[in-house]
């Protein structure tokens, strides 16, 4: 554990010190080394659990998310290199410091057992993300986007703070490992429901649940590419991880409480996928499709069966990689045409045929094509939801159908339409961009061979 | 005692003393006033208001736009309107129109002081020699006929463009009669309703005319006449703004482009460039902003060649593609309004004489307007829009008086001057892309026909941008490539 945490924390002073000529390349190689080392977390020996201490632990739920986080850092740096090129040196350093701080905080969030430390880190990740969105975003709307992003999460997590403190004072400890073994209260009092609500609301907003999702399209669209990547891939999964952890503590469920959330999330799948069909802005489309996939994850986490939890984990990792890849692809076309409108940046297969391969791959996995892990995750979730109640298949089935429709629409519009006359000369694809796509796609494809790693 | 000197002293000290007249102070009223002030301030801060801690200057253009249209005349707004009308989903394309002539607060210039649109005579005709011109005018006439359906904004009064369908009457002498007949044939093939008249028929139809030297005349029967350009511009503008087009007041001073240098097989170097940012300078201040853009449409009218030079067109060595300039220059044309009490009546069309002088009825009070295009040697100075009255006395009046004898006694009431965005190469518009600059579209060089062709051109450019090709009217003949190849697309019927 320490072999990863210490280097990540020390990436911050590294970004201060490296001389400018090798700033990006050395930072990149350091973060890649950390990413490779983080793969050791995926080793789950059956006999003795490996990474357990007082405050921190890495178990089968945290490990895949942690690995994804560490994997994403070099990818973020690679993706941002182009738009950071013209910035003055201190801004480049600031950017790298911000994302390394974010990385360290995320590692702590995922690996801690103490609920209060978890909350502190959860909130602390908001700050670097906010700075990245509002400072390096492209449009004037990024200020509104930052405000929405910050205050949605902040307002909903205040009850979480109170709930965690209450649990801490009541049980005199706040370790998730021990708390889940304490005899749960069987009373269905109003305060019990309030406690349940307080604990889970923050994560619902983070996921996001359909009714509380307004911050997501704004934040994703206005953020620079690294911000979009980390938002889509990791920060959304913070919510899922939180729900999984909290429900082990808050078990058992008062039934009438989680009906609204389940219904909202299932309905949200259908609604947000339908919005995607009418989107003209490419990044907005990918943002709404994130909401749609995360709706599935919320409903799975809420019904808490083993298959559902497995499906949720699978889908979280798969969606993290896919969504991040889609954002990177949208960014490559945005950098060349300076327009996120799909209708103005179409027919790209003629100009960038190799990038079309990656577009195809990302869109196929977004659609949950077999045998990708997206499909396995969705399949497990849909099956367990069907087991829980037969009518959910209508909503999830419709959601899958509409997802396929808008994904194919996105692919065909950006790649296959008539190439507009004003896109004749473009800078060719850099090796860096292809490397970025491979590093996204390789884990996706390799995990098909061994999904039990997640 | 407290009069006289003391009063004078107090009066002198008044600026410092500020002695206010006594009044009954009502503490409750003061309190409510303070409360109101507080409420105003609170309303400004609460969500839902647009107060921000970092105030963005209201007049700056947005930082990013998909299409930036340089020039807010009738062509620019027409392109903006058609882009919004043809976009696949509402809000798909982000359009900004940058126009520098808008500031009401500016001391000397009123709005649109120099734009060709509002200084135009406002005529529309189909009597051209090129089929594309005829098709464009026909489309525009249809557009004007249905203008309320196209441009109606909910809550606003219906659009009335005051179309006078009086038609154009072209007179031809011996030399030009054959050309006139050929043109009429082309016009009829395109669907324009034009009739040919002999001098006898002319005399019967228009008894006020002196038919000396006239061998043939062509008269447009439908879809020709004149209308109010200001109404069209405002209608297009308000409709486009209601559909989400941003209007920005500022002058485009430069483009920031990405250039790729390539070498051809012969070893010649060609620079392909792509405009990334449009730098806009705010009026009457030193503020400037840059708009990150995907496409730029050059609809700057008489000043289009300056805008084209900002993109590097015409700045290369003279015998290369990048050295071909956009040959659009401003040419000043005068229009005179006079009153003639016994002039021709309501049926007076837009008369275009064999000499090139033109005149038409203006309003219903016996006023007429007209002018003539000066010859090459007499081209007036384009520095300002001052009118030369001698020009009327010497060049316009004699010719018109010869043709319409009642114009021998008239009184000039007013006059103005406006610019033609004159294409010095072949007097035809330049529409379409440039081969070297990837994302610059031209919609300029109309040489006096910009107003009547604006709706059609707007639709053509919108089709080019959104669909990649011309769908309704094929304007391939007006592309920039003809300037490079040197092939003229001559329009012979330029007034």
UniProtKB/TrEMBL annotation, chain A:
Keywords: Electron transport, Membrane, Mitochondrion, NAD, Respiratory chain, Translocase, Transmembrane, Transmembrane helix, Transport, Ubiquinone. GO terms for molecular function: NADH dehydrogenase (ubiquinone) activity; ubiquinone binding. Residues 1-109 form the NADH:ubiquinone oxidoreductase chain 4 N-terminal domain. The keyword Electron transport applies. GO terms for biological process: aerobic respiration; electron transport coupled proton transport; mitochondrial electron transport, NADH to ubiquinone; mitochondrial respiratory chain complex I assembly. It is a multi-pass membrane protein. It catalyses: a ubiquinone + NADH + 5 H(+)(in) = a ubiquinol + NAD(+) + 4 H(+)(out). One of its GO terms (cellular component) is mitochondrial inner membrane. Its EC number is 7.1.1.2. The chain crosses the membrane at residues 21-41, 61-81, 93-110, 116-137, 149-169, 194-216, 223-244, 256-273, 285-305, 311-331, 343-361, 381-414. InterPro entries: NADH4_N, NADH_Q_OxRdtase_chainM/4, NADH_UbQ_OxRdtase, ND/Mrp_TM. Residues 113-403 form the NADH:quinone oxidoreductase/Mrp antiporter transmembrane domain. It comes from the Eukaryota. Its main location: mitochondrion. It is found in: Mitochondrion membrane. The keyword Transmembrane helix applies. Belongs to the complex I subunit 4 family. Core subunit of the mitochondrial membrane respiratory chain NADH dehydrogenase (Complex I) that is believed to belong to the minimal assembly required for catalysis. Complex I functions in the transfer of electrons from NADH to the respiratory chain. The immediate electron acceptor for the enzyme is believed to be ubiquinone. This is NADH-ubiquinone oxidoreductase chain 4. It comes from Anolis carolinensis (Green anole).
Automatic annotation (TrEMBL), chain B:
Gene3D superfamilies: D-Amino Acid Oxidase, subunit A, domain 2, FAD/NAD(P)-binding domain. Transmembrane segments: none annotated. The keyword Oxidoreductase applies. GO terms for molecular function: L-amino-acid oxidase activity. InterPro entries: FAD-dep_OxRdtase, FAD/NAD-bd_sf. Required for the assembly of the mitochondrial membrane respiratory chain NADH dehydrogenase (Complex I). Involved in mid-late stages of complex I assembly. This is FAD-dependent oxidoreductase domain-containing protein 1. The gene is FOXRED1.
């Amino acid at each position: 554990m320490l072999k990863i945490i210490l280097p990540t924390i020390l990436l911050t002073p590294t970004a201060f010190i490296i001389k400018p000529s090798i700033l990006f390349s050395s930072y990149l190689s350091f973060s890649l080394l950390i990413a490779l080392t983080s793969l050791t977390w995926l080793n789950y020996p059956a006999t003795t659990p490996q990474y357990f201490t007082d405050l921190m632990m890495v178990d089968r739920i945290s490990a895949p998310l942690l690995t994804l986080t560490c994997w994403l850092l070099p990818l973020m740096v690679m993706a941002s290199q182009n738009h950071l090129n013209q910035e003055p040196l201190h801004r480049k350093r600031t950017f790298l410091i911000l994302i390394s701080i974010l990385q360290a905080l995320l590692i702590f969030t995922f690996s801690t057992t103490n609920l209060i430390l978890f909350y502190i880190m959860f909130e602390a990740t908001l700050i670097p993300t906010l700075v990245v969105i509002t400072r390096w975003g492209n449009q004037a709307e990024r200020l509104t986007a930052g405000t929405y992003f910050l205050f949605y999460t902040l307002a909903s997590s205040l009850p979480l703070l109170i709930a965690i403190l209450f649990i801490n004072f009541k049980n005199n400890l706040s370790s998730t490992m021990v708390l889940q073994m304490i005899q749960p209260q069987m009373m269905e009092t109003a305060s019990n429901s309030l406690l349940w609500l307080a604990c889970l609301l923050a994560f619902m907003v983070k996921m996001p649940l359909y009714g509380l999702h307004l911050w997501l399209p704004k934040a994703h669209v206005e953020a620079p590419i690294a911000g979009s990547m980390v938002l889509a891939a990791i920060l959304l999964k913070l919510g899922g991880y939180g729900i999984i952890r909290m429900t082990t503590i808050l078990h058992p469920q008062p039934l009438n409480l989680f009906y609204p959330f389940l219904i909202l999330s299932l309905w949200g799948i259908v609604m947000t996928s339908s919005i995607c069909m009418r989107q003209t802005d490419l990044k907005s489309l990918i943002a709404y499709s994130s909401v749609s996939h995360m709706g599935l994850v919320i409903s799975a986490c809420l019904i808490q069966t083993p298959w559902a939890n497995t499906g949720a984990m699978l889908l979280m990792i798969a969606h993290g990689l896919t969504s991040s890849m889609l954002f990177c692809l949208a960014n490559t076309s945005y950098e060349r045409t300076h327009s996120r409108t799909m209708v103005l940046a179409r027919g790209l297969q003629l100009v960038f045929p190799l990038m079309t391969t990656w577009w195809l791959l990302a869109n196929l996995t977004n659609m949950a094509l077999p045998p990708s892990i997206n499909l396995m995750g969705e399949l497990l979730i849909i099956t367990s939801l069907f087991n829980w109640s037969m009518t959910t298949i209508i909503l999830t089935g419709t959601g899958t159908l509409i997802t396929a429709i808008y994904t194919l629409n996105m692919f065909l519009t950006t790649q296959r339409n008539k190439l507009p006359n004003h896109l004749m000369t473009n800078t060719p694809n850099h090796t860096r961009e292809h490397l970025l796509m491979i590093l996204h796609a390789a884990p996706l494809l390799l995990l098909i061979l061994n999904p039990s790693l997640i | 005692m407290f009069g006289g000197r003391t009063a004078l002293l107090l009066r002198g000290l008044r600026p410092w003393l500020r002695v206010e007249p006594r009044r009954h102070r009502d503490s409750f009223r003061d309190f409510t006033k303070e409360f109101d002030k507080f409420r105003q301030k609170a309303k400004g801060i609460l969500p839902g208001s647009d107060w921000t801690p970092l105030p963005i200057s209201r007049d700056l253009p947005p930082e990013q736009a998909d299409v930036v249209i340089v020039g807010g005349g009738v062509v620019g707004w027409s392109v903006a309107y058609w882009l919004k009308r043809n976009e696949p989903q509402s809000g798909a394309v982000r359009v900004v129109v940058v126009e520098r002539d808008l500031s009401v607060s500016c001391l000397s210039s009123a709005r649109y002081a120099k734009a060709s649109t509002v200084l135009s005579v406002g005529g529309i005709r189909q009597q051209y020699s090129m089929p594309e011109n005829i098709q464009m005018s026909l489309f525009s006439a249809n557009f004007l006929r249905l203008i309320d359906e196209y441009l109606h904004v909910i809550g606003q009064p219906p659009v009335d463009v005051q179309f006078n369908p009086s038609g154009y009457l072209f007179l031809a002498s011996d030399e030009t009669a054959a050309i006139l007949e050929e043109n009429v044939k082309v016009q009829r093939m395109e669907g324009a309703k034009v009739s040919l008249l002999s001098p006898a028929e002319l005399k019967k139809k228009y008894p006020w005319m002196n038919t000396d030297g006239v061998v043939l005349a062509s008269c447009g029967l439908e879809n020709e006449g004149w209308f109010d350009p200001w109404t069209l511009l405002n209608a297009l503008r308000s409709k486009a703004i209601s559909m989400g087009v941003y209007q920005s007041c500022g002058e485009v001073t430069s483009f920031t482009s990405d250039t790729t240098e390539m070498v051809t097989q012969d070893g010649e170097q060609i620079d392909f460039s792509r405009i990334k940012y449009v730098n806009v300078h705010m009026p009457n201040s030193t503020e400037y902003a840059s708009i990150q853009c995907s496409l730029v449409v050059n609809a700057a009218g008489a000043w289009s060649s300056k805008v084209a030079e900002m993109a590097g067109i015409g700045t290369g060595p003279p015998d290369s593609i990048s050295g071909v300039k956009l040959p659009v220059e401003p040419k000043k044309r005068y229009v005179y309004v006079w009153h003639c009490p016994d002039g021709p009546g309501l049926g007076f069309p837009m008369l275009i004489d064999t000499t090139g002088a033109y005149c038409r009825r203006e309003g219903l009070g016996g006023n007429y307007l007209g002018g003539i295009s000066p010859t090459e040697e007499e081209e007036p100075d384009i520095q300002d829009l001052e009118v030369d009255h001698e020009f009327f006395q010497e060049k316009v009046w004699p010719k018109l008086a010869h043709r319409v004898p009642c114009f021998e006694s008239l009184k000039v009431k007013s006059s103005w001057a406006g610019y033609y965005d004159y294409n010095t190469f072949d007097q035809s518009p330049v529409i379409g892309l440039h081969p070297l600059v990837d994302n610059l579209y031209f919609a300029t060089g109309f040489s006096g026909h910009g107003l009547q062709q604006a709706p059609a051109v707007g639709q053509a450019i919108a089709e080019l941008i959104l669909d990649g090709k011309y769908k309704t009217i094929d304007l391939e003949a007006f592309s920039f490539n003809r300037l490079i190849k040197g092939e003229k697309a001559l329009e012979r019927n330029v007034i």
